[in-house]
């Protein structure tokens, strides 16, 4: 019996392999597979695992490591850049969701403390599922992706305070005095600050000096579980301790390496966590109350989507971004299940309410990947309705003023004011080209407008916005936004409004090129291959390929639509290979010290090429460059010699004349 836990884990992983394989073949996300595995394996499913206690114990490790990883990824400098989204957007979303749930729960006859607690549970969304989907879709840097990320970060922080507040809502005899818990919390925070500032960084520095990967990894795990145990011993939660442990390391220079080392553990244990959630679901209860659970799931879906969209609108984003953000954050989060266990301990929810909530939450989690994939199409469909257009007509005074101030003809329209948009606008201003910028981040528009940029707030996916910047009369339209779906729609509308404009589109992936050309783009520049071209050019330069040939290669690749990278065969590549003349050759530089035996001698006296097989290709003397020096040229102290030769011969020459270098 002592190996019962091993049997349960073996069954779960074996079943998960089969379920995930089927999900992969059916293109169903892995999170759904883990939840289904739990449902099938659990005591309410096939009964392969009769008790979920063992799995819960292992899942606790998953929770600890998950929160630890979230703490590790916290960078206060990075978070400062989206502080408005985190503080304002997160507060609105969580606050309105708690209020919405509280009203409905009170109408259903629940007590006030129970209604507030249910609001806590419903307000949280799934960080693990959402971030995985956004990363896979490359949407993490889009406006709706950044908004969702900011709100999720707020939720991950506020759940800590919800856990601290839950015992007070319960009001049971096992709740300690308020001052006692607050005192413990303050004490823990002080300890964390001391560890962060004075103890952990020097300790990790000494550990990293050993260059032992095993020692470093064990140290990170020891810190994680020690702080988690410390907070648990003080009467606080394990999850809070794990988060604080991550926070301690996040401000050091070792956070990225720590995250990389524990990532395999996080993936393994969090998969068990989602399996354990599935095992909690009572299939019989779901079947008996199917209608109510479907209504509850629909209510959570609509309520959270609308509230998240409202929060996004109040941040200053347009309707399309708000719709996308709302459809991303509609689900119940994994931390709600952890919080629910605390609520059961303090008798805030009955087992029937818990099972109903659990079933609805799992349904929303399973729907999340599918809804996120459909979200761009839903946003476009809503945008085509007449009421968004009427709403938008009254919200473009700045752009209308622009049309009165400037004669917008033969101008450049820049859509998106990221790095590419900024560089392009500077180049246009320098060249005296009239231009206008469209950007959907209201804060960016406000800041850049103060600097005198002709930048205006508007969502370019809407035809009315493009008309107001007179895209019909533009000579060039540059689309430089991160949202793939929005890029397609803007390209289509711009081409429809302006058949003669030259449309240049920046895309992140080569897979989008065909669609964008079909939609009317004149030139599509994929970041994937432009990066490859840059690397390609530098590699060729290192192998001494002449500059003009490198430029010819690059021009050929771009002219042929990057076909070289996509379909050039190995045989064709061999035909392009350079001769082996420079194979094994290197260029290096050395500075001649004042006491060198080379100082004051002519190149021919030293017989550098004859004796050592090394060629001096140039001499730098202060600010002067002497290219291709002859045998009569002197080598003076403090000269820099640029040497060409085989690696071994260069090393031999440097060792001979500059010992110790």
Description:
- The protein has 31 helices and twelve strands.
- Helix 3 runs antiparallel to helix 12 (255-280), helix 8 packs parallel to helix 16 and helix 9 packs across helix 11 (238-250).
- It is of the alpha/beta class and 661 residues long.
- Helix content is 66%, strand content 8%.
- A hairpin with a 2-residue loop joins strand 9 and strand 10.
- It has a six-stranded parallel sheet, sandwiched between helices. A four-stranded antiparallel sheet has the order 7-12-9-10.
- It is globular.
Structural class computed from helices and strand pairing: alpha/beta
Taken from the alpha-carbon principal axes, the silhouette is globular
How far is the N terminus from the C terminus?
66 Å
Q: How is the main sheet built? A: 6 strands, parallel
| Proportion of beta-strand residues | 5-15%
Radius of gyration, Cα only, in angstroms?
31 Å
Low-confidence stretches: 393-406, 567-581
- The pLDDT mean sits at 79
The share of residues in helices is 55-70%
Tally of helical segments? 31
Number of strands: 12
Strand order of the largest sheet: 3-2-1-4-5-6
């Amino acid at each position: 019996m002592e190996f019962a836990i091993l049997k349960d884990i073996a069954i779960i992983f074996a079943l998960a392999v089969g379920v995930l394989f089927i999900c992969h073949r059916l293109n169903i996300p892995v999170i759904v597979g883990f939840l289904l595995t739990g449902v099938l394996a659990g005591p309410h499913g096939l009964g392969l695992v009769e008790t979920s206690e063992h799995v819960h114990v292992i899942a606790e490790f998953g929770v600890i490591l998950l929160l630890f990883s979230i703490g590790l990824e916290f960078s206060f400098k990075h978070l400062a850049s989206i502080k408005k989204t985190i503080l304002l957007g997160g507060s609105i979303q969580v606050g309105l969701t708690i209020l919405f749930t509280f009203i409905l729960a009170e109408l259903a006859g629940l007590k006030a403390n129970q209604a507030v607690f249910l609001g806590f549970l419903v307000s949280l969304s799934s960080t693990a599922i959402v971030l995985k989907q956004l990363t896979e879709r490359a949407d993490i840097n889009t406006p709706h992706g950044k908004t969702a990320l900011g709100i999720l970060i707020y939720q991950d922080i506020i759940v800590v305070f919800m856990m601290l507040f839950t015992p007070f809502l319960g009001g049971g005899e096992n709740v300690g005095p308020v001052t006692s818990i607050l005192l413990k919390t303050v004490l823990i925070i002080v300890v964390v600050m001391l560890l962060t500032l004075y103890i952990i960084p020097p300790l990790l520095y000494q550990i990293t000096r050993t260059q032992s990967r095993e020692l470093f990894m064990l140290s990170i795990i020891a810190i994680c579980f020690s702080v988690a145990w410390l907070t648990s011993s003080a009467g606080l939660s394990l999850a809070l301790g794990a988060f604080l442990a991550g926070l301690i390391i996040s401000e050091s220079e070792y956070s990225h390496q720590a995250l990389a080392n524990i990532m395999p553990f996080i993936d393994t244990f969090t998969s068990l966590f989602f399996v354990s959630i599935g095992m909690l679901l009572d299939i019989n209860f779901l079947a008996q109350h199917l209608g109510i659970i479907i209504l509850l799931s629909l209510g959570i879906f609509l309520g959270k989507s609308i509230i998240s969209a409202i929060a996004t609108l109040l941040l200053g984003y347009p309707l399309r971004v708000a719709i996308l953000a709302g459809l991303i954050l509609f689900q119940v989060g994994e931390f709600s299940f952890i919080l629910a266990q605390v609520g059961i301990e303090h008798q805030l929810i009955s087992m029937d309410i818990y099972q109903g909530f659990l079933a609805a939450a799992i349904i929303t989690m399973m729907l999340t990947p599918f809804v996120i994939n459909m979200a761009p199409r839903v946003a476009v469909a809503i945008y085509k309705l007449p009421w968004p257009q009427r709403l938008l007509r009254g919200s473009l005074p700045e752009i209308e003023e622009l049309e009165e101030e400037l004669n917008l003809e033969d101008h450049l329209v820049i859509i998106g004011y990221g790095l590419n948009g900024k560089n392009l606008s500077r180049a246009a201003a320098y060249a005296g080209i009239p231009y206008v910028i469209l950007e959907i981040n209201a804060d960016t528009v406000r800041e850049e407008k103060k600097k005198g940029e002709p930048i205006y707030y508007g969502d370019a996916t809407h035809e009315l916005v493009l008309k107001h910047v007179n895209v019909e009369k533009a000579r060039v339209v540059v689309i430089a936004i991160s949202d793939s779906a929005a890029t397609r729609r803007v390209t289509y509308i711009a081409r429809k409004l302006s058949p003669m404009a030259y449309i240049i589109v920046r895309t992140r992936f080569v897979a989008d090129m065909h669609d964008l050309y079909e939609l009317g783009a004149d030139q599509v520049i994929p970041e994937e291959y432009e990066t490859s071209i840059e690397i390609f050019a530098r590699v060729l330069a290192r192998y001494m390929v002449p500059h003009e040939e490198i430029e010819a290669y690059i021009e050929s690749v771009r002219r042929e639509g990057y076909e070289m990278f996509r379909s050039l065969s190995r045989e064709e590549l061999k035909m392009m290979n350079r001769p082996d003349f420079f194979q094994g050759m290197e260029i290096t530089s050395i500075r001649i010290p004042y006491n060198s035996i080379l100082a004051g001698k002519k190149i021919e006296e030293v017989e550098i090429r004859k004796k050592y097989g090394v060629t001096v290709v140039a001499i730098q003397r202060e600010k002067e460059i002497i290219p291709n020096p002859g045998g009569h040229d002197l080598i003076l102290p403090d000269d820099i010699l640029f040497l060409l030769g085989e690696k071994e011969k260069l090393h031999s020459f440097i060792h001979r004349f500059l010992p110790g270098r």
